[in-house]
Amino acid sequence: MSLQFCADHDLRPLNTFGMAARAAHFCRLDNLADLPDLLTHPLYLQGPVLWLGGGSNLLLTRDYPGLVAKVGLAGIRLLEEDGDDVVVEAAAGENWHDFVLHALEQGWYGLENLSLIPGTVGACPVQNIGAYGVEVKDHLQEVVCARLDHGGEALVLSNADCRFGYRDSVFKHEAAGKLLVTAVRFRLSRRASLRTGYGDIQQQLERQGVSEPTPQDVSRAVIAIRRSKLPDPAALGNAGSFFKNPVVSRARAEALLAAHPKLPHYPTADGQVKLAAGWLIDQCGLKGYRNGDAGVHQKQALVLVNYGQARGEEIHALARQVQDAVAQRFGVRLEPEPLIL
Q: What is the per-residue pLDDT across 128-151, written as a single tens digit (0 to 9) for each?
């Protein structure tokens, strides 16, 4: 068995908020063949267990009392080619942004709008990550999982099986704690089909002097936009967007728009309306707000930041303060994106 366990492990480098926290026990899963041994190890059996990817969607408010298992599974391979269509499999531990760049280098297109999203490939279906008019479900074919209650037995879920919603999937509900994502298969294309009409992509392309963009150009534009608006976790601890954009009924949206005509809003496929959480927070006067080392980012109100020595419970308290302010003014309760422990 190549698994190695250690006690009292520092988790600060393993979460993008940079929270000072420790795990009672820690191990890395770099080889899928070791999973059955891990699932029968006394430290796993006594629990609790936290499966950790890139730590970019996590707020630690305390030390973790059980086993933290870091998923380090690596590898990218081309599974199928059918004309312009390709099916590509990436292991769960691969860095998401690096995978997107690799796909572009190979001429596999479709994921360019999702450039620079932090985290690992294994986390992308759990959260159904999305940005600039694209969600991962739009290009995901299958998710390869291990059944944790069946010795790590493999199980492949189709796109439909994952029951994707806005920042949601079956992995947050029935499959939580039962399935571990080990790889994700994507259906991509060698023929570009660009989506440049969302957000500032078209304007950024124009600023870059690009009139006939390629997928690589779109990726570079998205990267530039994200870097201009979002703080680098390596320099300023954060977990990206801390709150989901709330989805409300059309009637509720119409009432809010009557009172706030400038409220950015977007119709959803099911007839509801998605509201811009960042705008709601900004209207409450909280953009740039800071309490000690816990703050709301100056450029993007959706992002809560650790200015250096904030504790997890201080970030959590700030999140509740933001939720209360938005609820009081707009009657809408924001939902956090990260897992809060």
A: 999 888 999 999 999 999 999 999
